[in-house]
Amino acid sequence: MNSDATKTEPPSTAGSRRIEGLDGLRGVAAMVVVLLHSLLLSDSFVTPFADPRPTTTPGEPMWWLTHTPLHLPWEGSVAVFVFFVLSGFVLCLPARHTRMNWRAYYPSRLVRLYIPVWASVGVALIWIYALPDLVEGSRFLQIHMDPVPLGILRDLILIVPAQPGMTNTVLWSLKWEIIFSLLLPLFILFAAKWRRGLALKVVFVLALLVVGAYEGPIERPYALGVLFQLPIFALGCLIAFEWDRLTALRDRLRNPTPVFAWLGVLVVLFITSYWMVFALPLSEGVLELVAPATRVLQVLGAALLVILVILSPGLGAALSVRPLRWLGTRSFSLYLVHEPMIVAFGRLLPESINPLFLSPIVIVVALGLAEVFFRLVERPSHRLARRVARRFGSPKTPRPKVAEVESA
């Protein structure tokens, strides 16, 4: 999620702003995940998160927060889809014009990912064992039980058949990030070859997403399998290799603003489609048929959002303001440290506290912890990864800049 090496395009002002806009988008996505987890301190938000079937009526605030575009600020699943698309985009972008030095890439990439993950597991264990066991609280808090040794080992290894995340549930996404990073040559080959077959490649990726979504469980996107998760990265790779075609298409538009506006509407509808479809008067049979397709629409919404940030100068500039750029550079640290801290808040504070009032406090504390983690762990891991790349890179081959983008 952090990106220290995203300035890969020509150094024009517009190009730089678009890339910085992606940094800002990454920061916003991280904040969406933080807000979601802070709201899950209350079962009022856990209930629709676990089962989107309405338990409230259209006249109640919770219905509007769940089944309309008001769900956007706490749609954490799509935020992770955005991370995956961004990782595919940024890791594939240098490969368009540069021969990748895989001897340098692999060890440095693994160092870059695993050191912060291991440190975050340590931080989570400190929170877990320093605080009293939880006897009450929301269902979200109840799942954060004392981890068993095997669960801790899964979180440290990540690439295991079982789902990692016993110490820190966000680690489920790092499993797919690692797998994608290891398979990057195949993704680059897929995106780079047969450029005229773009439509067929997109159809192929969408077909995999559909199969993965219908395999389920759609109510738990973090538990969806390889056929759903890895194609999301592939969309980012395709966007990277079609960068020139996308910008040329935009430049041919006399007035692109209406196009961007309609794309924005489409993004909102796609991202919230999963929640809106459950508010429709549909039978269970129809829902079982339609709902998985809305998860695919959410992925498309995430990919379209990335494209929109790349192509729209206005949106790119809005996401390039200094606070959002700072947030983007700290997003990986924020992603890794926020949930154990939120669980600690839940254990220490009375259950009666409204999470809507608690969330601003949680966010401020999480940002502070993210800055500390960034300075003590993530930034040193950047430096170590660069040293490792120099150590393992072939002296006969110019070493390409290794993209340092993490996903959540």
From TrEMBL:
InterPro entries: Acyl_transf_3_dom, Acyltransferase_3. One of its GO terms (molecular function) is acyltransferase activity, transferring groups other than amino-acyl groups. It comes from the Bacteria. It holds the Pfam family Acyl_transf_3. Signal peptide: none annotated. The keyword Nucleotide-binding does not apply. Keywords: Membrane, Transmembrane, Transmembrane helix. This is Peptidoglycan/LPS O-acetylase OafA/YrhL. It comes from Microbacterium proteolyticum.
